[in-house]
What we know:
This protein has 279 residues and is α/β, with parallel strands linked by helices. It folds into two domains: 3-58, no CATH class; 65-277, TIM Barrel (Alpha-Beta Barrel). 53% of the residues lie in helices and 15% in strands. An eight-stranded parallel beta barrel has the order 1-2-3-4-5-6-7-8, surrounded by eight helices. Helix 9 links the parallel strand 5 and strand 6 (194-198). Helix 4 crosses helix 14. The longest helix is centred in the N-terminal third of the chain and has 19 residues, at 23-41. The chain is globular.
Amino acid sequence: xxxxxxxxxxxxxxxxxxxxxxxxxxxxxxxxxxxxxxxxxxxxxxxxxxxxxxxxxxxxxxxxxxxxxxxxxxxxxxxxxxxxxxxxxxxxxxxxxxxxxxxxxxxxxxxxxxxxxxxxxxxxxxxxxxxxxxxxxxxxxxxxxxxxxxxxxxxxxxxxxxxxxxxxxxxxxxxxxxxxxxxxxxxxxxxxxxxxxxxxxxxxxxxxxxxxxxxxxxxxxxxxxxxxxxxxxxxxxxxxxxxxxxxxxxxxxxxxxxxxxxxxxxxxxxxxxxxxxxx
Length: 279
């Protein structure tokens, strides 16, 4: 068997077996499969291609993205902080729920106008009228809208259908969900684009959730939906790397950036901490 055939076989096998649950585990899975095939075919001593180039062919998303949550009630301040966060390395800008409640879809439009090439999330936290609320946000310029996992399933389906129709995506927020695994499995069946493990502000204040507990949930959910799990809730430079290593592909940070005296530098610190953890 020549090198080209082996290379093609590797690509097909890896595309058919998306079992890895985190960026680091993806790398291990890739390395393991490559090594087995090369040894079996006797080609491990005379490679004419670089195995890790497979990742580019597979389109595997290894980068953990940083989302800044603009949970503010001052639109001008949100635009300023959003820009500084992007300059610091943020990948996604979120129109937070308070911002949307105060300014409506004008907040989403303003973010889209200010950042035309950036992924915009509208944190609608939809509980009813799934199609209507998804349409409002997506037409205003959002790329991703959120709907609550505790909403009726019909609402989630309506939001998903409308988002597909308009070329957008839906992030299902698992806040207050107790049966995380089974809900995640059902969301996978419904073809949800993303799941978000979210510790709400009031829960953070009253009782908190340990990073270790959240890491376990991230690992479990990312085994169901690899590369499509977000995590939010009181995340700082100290905890973001743990969640990235556990399998989160989107790290959502609010106050650690928006309440910082230097949002640009705060974003840089968090981004660099994530980068170091995944080396």
